[in-house]
Amino acid sequence: MNNYYVDRKKNLIKQFNKLSKKSKPILLKRFNREETDSIISESLENFEKIIPTLPYIGGKKNSGTMNLIGGAAFLAFIKSIEKYDIEEREIGKIIYEMLCAEFESRSKILMKLLGKIMGSKIGKKLIKMKYKKNQFNNYEGGWENELILEENPDFIVGINVKKCGICKLYKEHDAEKYIPYMCLGDYPMFGSMGIELKRTKTIANGGDVCDFRLYKNGRTKNAWPPEKLTEWKNKS
């Protein structure tokens, strides 16, 4: 058993508590204070149980590791909220609002700078080098990505995700129906960087791949209601 996550448990819990603080106002819109405090407390307990079960997929060298940890944090909340009489779609909306709150809390200057770097010549070159290596594709429980190139001055990069670590994690916890809502977080994330995300399908919605296409000079796209998105219209 790899102890990568257990060794970093203290820091992971610190990050989880930050997420809880940002999420509390969202929960208070649906639950009373006692229920909200109970959800947050139980979610932390859930997260602590999930941490040692997460697969090692390359550690800090692989950006997918942070995605997996984030997915585990939201899974912990889902498990707690599910105990209340709330429909799946409403839980999905709570998760989406929590994701938006997370990205809105980050430094706008830093996020825009990151987007500018990604869209620059050297940024695109570094991204291509990273995905051409595909050095993390073979980790069980992680991601498998395929690089897609396009001749377009506004095009940054395309990624076809063939295997998704969050999909695997959620399936293991019988939470598969919430994966499509987790995918919605990609829109505010890239939007906060000034990058436009175009995506017509996701593995979560029955696609063979998640077809990410990233373009410069994009705006934050409101992904709710999700039924308006092409990736949901193409749901199979």
At a glance:
With 236 residues, the chain is α+β, with helices and mostly antiparallel strands. 53% of the residues lie in helices and 10% in strands. The chain folds into 2 domains: 4-104, no CATH class; 108-233, no CATH class.
Q: How many domain modules? A: 2
Task: Tell me the number of helical segments per DSSP (H or I, 4 or more residues long).
Answer: 11
In whole angstroms, the N-to-C terminal distance is 37 Å
**Could you give the order of the helices and strands?**
HHHHHHHEEHHHEEH
Mean of all residue-level pLDDT scores: 95
**Overall shape:** globular
Which percent range fits the helix content? 40-55%
Q: Can you list the strand order of the major beta sheet?
A: 1-2-4-3
Biggest pleated sheet: 4 strands, antiparallel
Unreliable residue runs: none
Strand content: 5-15%
> How many beta strands in the DSSP annotation?
4
User: C-alpha Rg, in Å?
Assistant: 18 Å
- Structural class, by secondary structure, is alpha+beta
3D structure, described in words:
It is built from eleven helices and four strands. With about 240 residues, it is α+β, with helices and mostly antiparallel strands. It has two domains: about 100 residues, no CATH class; about 130 residues, no CATH class. It has a four-stranded antiparallel beta sheet. Strand 1 and strand 2 form a beta hairpin. Helix 3 packs across helix 4, helix 4 packs parallel to helix 8 and helix 6 crosses helix 7. The chain is globular and about 55 Å long. The protein starts with a helix and ends with a helix.
